[in-house]
Amino acid sequence: MTVKVCMGNEAIALGALAAGVSVAAGYPGTPSTEIIETLAHVHRPGVSVQWSVNEKAALEVAAGAAYAGARSLCTMKQVGLNVASDPLMSLSYIGVKGGMVIAVADDPGPWSSQTEQDTRGFAKHANLPVFDPSSPEEAYLMVQTAYEFSEKYSLPVFMRPTTRVCHASADVDLAEPAEIKAADGFERRPEWCIFPALSYRRHGELEVKQYEMARDFDSMPYNRIEGKGRKGVAVSGVSYLYAKEAVSELGADVLLYKVGTPYPLPEKTTKDFLASVDSVLVIEELDPVVEEQLLIEASGKVPVLGKRSGDMPKNGEYSFEIVKDALIKYLGLPQPEKEADALPQLPVRPPVLCAGCPHRASFYAAKVAAKGFKKAVYCGDIGCYTLGNAAPLNMVDTCLCMGAGITLAQGIALADRDAKCLAFIGDSTFFHTGIPGVINAVYQGTDITVIVLDNHTTAMTGHQPHPGTGKHADGSEAPALDIETLLKACGVKHVSTVDPFDFPETVKAIREAAEFPGASAVIAKAPCIAQIKKPAAVRFVNDGCIKCGRCVAEIGCPAITPDSTGRAVIDAPLCTDCGLCSYVCPVSAIERGERNVK
Amino acid sequence: MSNSIVIAGVGGQGTLLASKILAAAAGARGLFVRTSETIGMAQRGGCVSSHLRIDAKELSPIIPEHHADILLAFEPAEAVRMLPKMKASAGCVVNTDSVIPTNVALGKGVYLKKDYLDLLRNRFPAAVFIEGARTALAAGDIRTLNVVILGAASGAGILPFSAEEILSAMKTCVKPKLLAMNEKAFELGLAAPGVRW
What we know:
The structure holds two protein chains of two kinds.
Chain A (H helix, E strand, L loop, with lengths): L1 E6 H11 L4 E4 L7 H9 L5 E4 L3 H13 L4 E6 H6 L1 H10 L5 E6 L13 H7 L4 E2 L4 H18 L3 E3 L3 H4 L1 E7 L21 H21 L7 E4 L3 E6 L2 H12 L4 E5 L7 H10 L2 E5 L5 H10 L5 E2 L14 H12 L26 H12 L5 E5 L24 H12 L3 E8 H18 L3 E7 L28 H7 L4 E5 L4 H13 L4 E6 L11 E5 L8 H6 L4 E3 L5 E3 L9 H5 L5 E5 L4
Parallel strand pairs in A: 2-3, 2-4, 4-5, 5-7, 6-7, 10-11, 10-12, 12-13, 14-15, 15-16, 16-18, 17-18
Antiparallel strand pairs in A: 1-8, 9-11, 19-22, 20-21
Chain B lengths: L2 E8 L4 H14 L4 E4 L10 E8 L13 E6 L2 H6 L4 E10 L6 H4 L7 H11 L4 E3 L1 H8 L5 H11 L7 H11 L2 H15 L4 E2 L1
Parallel strand pairs in B: 1-4, 4-5, 5-6
Antiparallel strand pairs in B: 1-3, 2-3, 6-7
Helix pairs in contact in B: 1-7, 5-6, 5-8, 6-8, 7-8
């Protein structure tokens, strides 16, 4: 055993290695990304690690490996599970041979997500068991148990960490990594093929397994009752630590039911808990998954308080403060007086496109190109470029889910004939779910312009490779798929590739594409500035500045701020010499100069 | 010796590495450490904070209000934003270089640097204020700001670790080719002419 400070995601990856995992596949998404990144970095011989093209592909790859008897891991964020839900629902009937863990990270808040959906509810929907770690050290152990459990029941098993487990770190006692569990190879059997008659039989068997699993969960250390008293508190996930600290500070007597497997709830432990308390407060983020099961089990005999009773918030992330306040109210303790901390007004600091980001140049060029159009609609997508919605660019009119921009644009174009619809999509998102939308536009003959913002990486999640980058997850060389070739192969008749920092050329290319009748595409290609060495040159503002503020007001580059007199000042350490501001300055007062780093 | 440390800044300033170094220092001493980070969308120029709780097995990974013993602030407004977390007795190091958000540059919202520094000075008379960017650039790269601030905190004697412990933790967290530059940044931070009001 060695003790190491591990991030939750790292602990999950190392736990999977300790369980002998040999195939891991995922698609990057906050807060799940570091699980695959850890495995790619550890680079253990005999373990295949991949960034798949999307979550559906990842889940199917992991399922195939488990069919062949390997222990497999599949990772994604909560909204990724929507993409993977088609194989998931059938897989719960078909089952697996080797252990398979689906690690889906939820994002209460949400901090970096479109929704606050709860994977525990998804697990219940799919009749699959779910482990809900409260901390990185527990996640490390749980994932190992999850593999044994998966093989025992021949079912894939969910691990559902949340942001505060994924991105928290703690001391973890690491075991020696186990031998890779050798896969005995794929064996032909009729049950690998889903057919209605098999589905009927398997559905019945799956329902029986729900009760067996609930009984099995009774013996697991992740489910336990702590403390004393007749006031019951049930907690799931990271709320366990909020509750532990709050209970200890309040010095209160509560009977704490720590739920580590929120679906199915352990059978006997749940009954014992309900029999020992006069009431229950359920503390769990997102959906009332534990609460509803306790309500059914209590069947009116014990009051179960929580979200449905209005005692706990239904949305957003929980905190020590929320949990402590709820406990004070529940336990009838005196409410301490709160003195509001009067702070001076603080700036709002929304995330922004980086200084020198090529997306800024692409968005601004599209804005300039569209000036002559009667109406332009900008359909955005998921990635760093969603930040193009902020002032002053205001270039994201819609954003729904991965790949939706291209298809939403088609619907808008059909219903609003005056609108020129431009769909922006990043390179990784293009591979993820963009391509079918392009084919649909070509097939239907819908007049839209797709602008692929190709920065050669999956930037928002921390620069993962994708099929266009020529790299695998572990950095080894891969075939690089060419986006222009793919677009042409999809039947797009007008495709051009531009460097977004060649501003006049980009404006021209976007205008021509938008004027082309039918589906057209422009690939704006320039590497993410976080991945390139800062050039020796920077831009600076010379004495010709007329303090018009245009450079700030037009492009909103974080490296440019006006000084107290209104003169624009460029922050040299941030500047990347992209030169977009020089195009914007009406008096050519922004020049190129030497970077002075000392 | 339970200790809660808040590291606050703006996405891109390198708060994460500072947190990692302190966690490694705690680990080397055999103390249980729990940290929490802001990763994801906010890393693109938004507010980010790292929370470290040392010797804190059964505590929340996020530091509750009025529970933080130490504030390492990479930016004045972000220092003020963290005030509700701080104990009255907290030790503070504040980098005085502002990062003005784009929306403020566009005339939306305010940035009251003087008010922020005055408030911090009144609230924490022993706080140390440094011009971190200048020191980091002197060490060779603006990206050593995080280590400069650790150095200043170590110099101010507010960290629960010695300078040697931090330097040795850096060896496990900093890329080998950047180690020498970061060690220089730490030494410069340690000796930085921090201003105490």
